[in-house]
Write a structure and sequence with these properties.
The complex is a heterotrimer. By secondary structure, chain A is of the alpha/beta class. Chain A has 13 helices and 17 strands. The longest helix of chain A has 18 residues. The two termini of chain A are about 30 Å apart. Classes of the chains: A alpha/beta, B mainly alpha, C mainly alpha. The structure holds adenosine-5'-triphosphate and magnesium ion.
Amino acid sequence: MIEFRAVTKRFEDGTIAVDELDLTVEAGTITVFVGPSGCGKTTSLRMVNRMIDPTSGTILVDGKDVLTVDPPTLRRGIGYVIQQAGLFPHRTVLDNVATVPLLSGWDRRKARTRAAELLEIVGLDPAFGKRYPAQLSGGQQQRVGVARALAADPPVLLMDEPFSAVDPVVREDLQNELLRLQAELDKTIVFVTHDIDEALKLGERVAVFQTGGHLAQYARPTELLAAPANDFVASFVGRDRGYRTLTFLHADVPVHPITTAKLGQRITVTDWTLVVDDANRPKGWLSGVDGEVEISEQDLISGGSLYDGSTLRGALDAALSSPSALGVVVDDAGAVTGVVKADDVIKALAKARAAGEVPK
Amino acid sequence: MTWIFENWERFWEVTEVHLRLSVVPVVIGFLLSIPLGWVASRSNTARAILFPLANILFTIPSIALIVITPVLIGVKILDEINVVVPLVIYTVALMVRSVADALSAVPGHVTAAANAMGFRPLRRFLTVDFPLALPVTIAGLRVATVSNISMVSVGALVGLGGYGQLFTEGYQTDHTDKVLAGLIGTIVLAALADGLLLLIGRLLTPWTRAGR
Amino acid sequence: MGDWLFDPAHWSGTTGIPVRLLEHLGYTLLTLLIAAVIAIPLGAFVGHTGKGGFLVVGLSNVLRALPTTAVLILVVLWAGLGDFPVYVALVLLAIPPIMAGTYAGIRAVDPVTVDAARGVGMRESGVLLNVEIPNALPLIYGGFRGAALQVVATATIAAYTGAGGLGRLVFDGLALQEFGQMLAGAVLVALLAVLVDLGFAGLQRLTVSPGLRPVGTGGKR
Ligand SMILES: Nc1ncnc2c1ncn2[C@@H]1O[C@H](COP(=O)(O)OP(=O)(O)OP(=O)(O)O)[C@@H](O)[C@H]1O
Ligand SMILES: [Mg+2]
């Protein structure tokens, strides 16, 4: 658990980066600090491991005032991941990851073995251990950064925009990986970002900071979306608030049957038909105006996103992005089980609202 | 210090010689290194020849160059040209690199824009590339000038003029004051020349301090 | 020159070429060692703390302007003939490039890397010794090798006050008006400089982390 008690940071030039911050980060959760550039997220984070000392106020980690611990010792017990990864260019990946165990006095062999384990945990082939950071992609460097932070198994992890320098696809991978890791490791994580989507996705609780170092709201993502504390939070959470709410709803949407066909088949197409492969996985759509055809690859109209039964947002997106307006539903193996319609999603939302599942 | 005031005329005389023997090679060497540096900045082949050559020239001891020069160009050992030629060589060896690096560092979009506006090569070099390369070039020139001023004294070991004469005379007559006088003269001269170049550089490149 | 250089008589005895070469090499290596012991900690400390940078630059400039001949002669006049004045003069010559290279090298280490080093819990000494210096090594070597070239070339002057080294060939040749001997001295000094530089280039390859080589040339892919 991390507690900020009336914490203020005023830099020498008079800038007030953090203003009377009161906030408790629950143990074993991911708490996200989000807000516009310069609102004091990094400063708040860096006060936890004493990279910056507060001007006034107290920060407690598991009940202990951080100012009573000498900084290097404190930092060895707190994982720290930063945007540019900050790997040591002169050390191999393996030695980078082994840094904190070695600092904490482990013997070399044990530290290396642990480092190799961690590479696997963060999803890197241990063969990467011999490379130098300059020989890795940005996403791989970020994974090494996370592995390095986890190496000594610290209970607390501080992450400052760890995924903001990589492309959106890799970012999503890394986010999912973090959620998976957290399910296993149960760390107390403070995660800084200025991307509201990332905050809503990762955070069990989200602290929205306002320029000038004020905490504008500290709440669960659903509450944030449903009941922004003020105009600033409302505008920061954004125009797509209603749509984002769907991310947190898991209501049932009726799945309709759909005619499927295979490549090479001769059929008369009367309506939208879904072409699947031998494992019943979707390949594309045939439109209903072609008359009798022998189905070939170039007749296919590629489809939209697939709905795997998770959230209403996924269902609505599948329907809206499909050329037939029918969202393809797939099971865990990727096989087609039917389709969903946008109308049904809206109805499900109304039902959830009536049942009080959507916080107002 | 008292030696300087008691022997002011002598001091002034060696100062003049020292100044001449160090400034002349800097000027000649600088002028030679501009076209050479330009070539090195444009062609990898030229660079691959000029840079290692400059390094090797730099490893030849100055005293050796000073004693060899007269034999090679057929003048007497006491001719001032025997100091000037080696120092020109050192200046060029130092400055070719500075000039080439400075010209290579001119942003590509600037030269492209100049070409697009219809500058011819020579005009572009004189009015765009070279001025933009001046800050780095002048930094190199300052190093070359200071080391030249300090190196001229070596000539005195074979009997040539400048402050070095005060060193050798002081050594032969066990006269520390005289050596110190030459030492002080060298440092003051170097500091003045360095400051002057710094000032000239600032006056020539006002844009480097704009918007700060 | 060839005649003088390849005459077997000049390759033996206590004043032969091998002895002169070793003397010259000895001056060079010991000078570099002393200068490095003084200049690297100074440059590293100033680079690490960021305090006194102008002092390093100022000191370097003053030392650069100092004529080695004058220093040599002054120390001889004060302390008498011998190797001591040679070392004083050469060490003062070698300090500025080594100190400037170290200072610049430490300053050029990516602040993010240094921040991360503190972030994982290194103490200040660890940050300097295990992160800043290893990353600054390429520039430290740059300054050091520059100093080595200058020291090899300038050690020639030591012979003016009667010390040894290859400068003996030059000054004795000058006194005897023996051009071949002077030229042989000059060529041998240049050759020694190239060899010394090659040696340090090899040392640099061995001690600088492959992770710091320009991407594309270093390590295995
Ligand atoms: N060392 C410093 N000295 C003076 N002001 C500083 C210092 N560090 C940060 N600040 C100021 O404090 C404020 C908060 O900075 P901080 O880095 O915490 O912002 P941030 O929320 O992390 O922003 P970003 O999203 O851009 O990373 C900013 O106005 C910044 O300019
Ligand atoms: Mg920040």
